[in-house]
Amino acid sequence: MAPVSPDWSLYRSFVAVLREGSLSGAARVLGVSQPTLGRHIAALESALGLALFTRSPEGLKPTLEAKALRPQAEALAAAAESLFRAASGPLRENEGPVRISASEVFAVEVLPPLLARLQETHPRIIVELQVSNRVEDLLRRDADLAVRVVRPEQDALLATRVGSVEAGLFAHPSYLARHPAPRTTGELLRHALVGFDVGAPYTRVLQLEGRALTREDFSLRTDSDLAMLAAIRSGCGIGGCLVPLGQRSGLVRVLPRLFSPSAEVWVVMHEDLRATARCRTVFDALSVGLKDLLGGSSRKPR
Fold first, then answer.
1. Where are the alpha helices (H) located in 21-162, listed in sequence order?
2. Would you list the DSSP string of 39-66?
3. Residues 6 or more apart in contact with residue 160 via CB below 8 angstroms
4. 131 phi and psi, to 5 degrees?
5. How far is 147 from 103, CA to CA, in rounded Å?
6. Which helix (H) or strand (E) holds 224?
């Protein structure tokens, strides 16, 4: 007799424990009791013939086998969530949930007015805004749509370029009143700088005259784009932010000729959602709205 595949709910519990690091935390997220969750993990371990977790003072520590299974388990979880969203509303009507992934800055500072307009015209569409600085994998259905500042390369994705956005170095007038604005890279490096702690792919653009800025250059470090922007607005020092946000916040730009990187902005959707009316409606609304905001030339989805 062929082995029976474990029930999906067991994998769902497995993914929750991986993400939360404890049975209690995973139980709260899933809305089940801790003993139930413990039985799920024990049942999955028995079905697979593997030990998935070991206990440690910090909580449940995944074994090497659990780490190896994590990508497939998370893909299964994302696919199940995508299926649930697709089944939650009529495919040919503007009704039901649409999950949008966007970075902190876009989710808080850019998208809300566009989403408010969308909800006025399509009140039966439910927006689920996933705030993340990670580049979500739409192929795994972590989200239905995404706003990205990197060009997607996967053939299975519909992508529209809505423009480009420039970044610059900014400081609050109160900071520059205490510390005269720098005129050279050398002078800038003697200022209080606001920047990243761990770093991410986008931090590679933080270069001045060919010199890459590192965490040791910053007197205030954070990997939250919003915390970084708030620190600059509060006069903590000089830091990088999107030019439109810096101007809107009343900040003063410094050294624009030495630091002016730009990035393309894309709205992306999995091609399988093309026929789902509510997803296409949100895709088009974000594409048009961001094009107006950024002044970019939109291209038809490829």
1. 23-30, 34-48, 64-87, 104-105, 111-121
2. HHHHHHHHHHT---EEEETTEEEE-HHH
3. 266, 267, 268, 283, 287, 298, 299, 300, 301
4. -90, 115
5. 8
6. none
- pLDDT tens, residue by residue, 79-136: 766 666 556 556 567 888 999 999 999 999 999 999 999 999 999 999 999 988 666 6
pTM for the whole structure = 0.66
Amino acid symbol at 39: R
Question: Tell me, what amino acid is at 299?
Answer: R
Residue 74: its pLDDT value, please?
78
Task: Give every CB contact of residue 262 below 8 A, 6+ residues apart in sequence.
Answer: 164, 165, 166, 167
Other beta carbons within 10 angstroms of residue 200's beta carbon come to: 12
Burial of 201 (0-12, 13-18, 19+ CB in 10 A): exposed
Mean pLDDT of the chain: 84
pLDDT at 46 over 80: yes
Lowest pLDDT segment from 176-185, 207-216, 287-296: 207-216
Q: Strands, E, within the chain: which ranges?
A: 53-56, 59-62, 96-102, 125-131, 145-148, 157-171, 193-195, 207-208, 211-212, 220-221, 238-242, 252-254, 262-270
Q: What is the DSSP letter of 281?
A: H
